Amino acid sequence: MSLEQITQTMASRVAAGSGLNATVKFDFGDDGIVFVDGNNNTVSNEDAEADCTITITMANFQALASGDLDPTTAFMMGKLKVKGNMGIAMKLQSLLG
User: Fold this and answer.
1) What value does the mean pLDDT take over residues 91-95?
2) Whole-model pTM?
């Protein structure tokens, strides 16, 4: 899955009304960024300040999205790092799966 595909998938889910009411940045390192603005129901690839930043590799993100990697396990193993509001991170399942 490419950055563009991830961006489009999240955009379709956010447009449907994610109920997120916050901003989240997925930082894939050298692979890019997906910025989700749940307040305005928009998704972009800009690097902006967010209420919650998730740092994860593209491969681990794909494993999470497909259900092959449990979010709690990923966090405990350091495969997923959360900076900012942890409560927002807990709401992200609707965007991933």
Assistant:
1) 70
2) 0.89
